Amino acid sequence: MIRFHEGSGSSQIELLDASFTQAEWTRLRAVAVGLLERRGHFPASEFLSQHPFGLFHGTNSFGDDFCVL
C-alpha cells in the first residue's frame, strides 16, 4: 500500500473487502478516467488507467469506515 495523503487523525488502516465487483469497478474507473480527461487532467487520467488500482472498504481502531483506493 502506498499512502499519497494522510490527515491528522488515526494513521491505522485495516483493509476489508472490495467495494465493488470487478465489472462494477471497471465501469466506474472508465467513467472516472473520462471525467478526468474532459476536465483536462490528462496526467491523472493516464495514471488511473495505467495502474491496477482497486477500491476497498477500510476501517481503523476508532471504528471509522472509509474507502481506500
Please report the total strand number as a whole number.
3
Q: Helix/strand/pairing class, anyone?
A: alpha+beta
Provide the succession of SSEs.
EHHEE
The amount of helix comes to: 25-40%
Shape verdict: globular
Oligomer: single chain
Largest sheet: 3 strands, antiparallel
List low-pLDDT spans.
none
Distance between the termini: 9 Å
3D structure, described in words:
There is one protein chain. It contains two helices and three strands, in the order E-H-H-E-E. The longest helix is centred in the middle third of the chain and has 17 residues, at 22-38. It has helices spanning 22-38, 42-50; strands spanning 14-18, 56-59, 65-68. It has one domain. It has 69 residues and is an alpha+beta fold. Strand 2 (56-59) and strand 3 (65-68) form a beta hairpin.
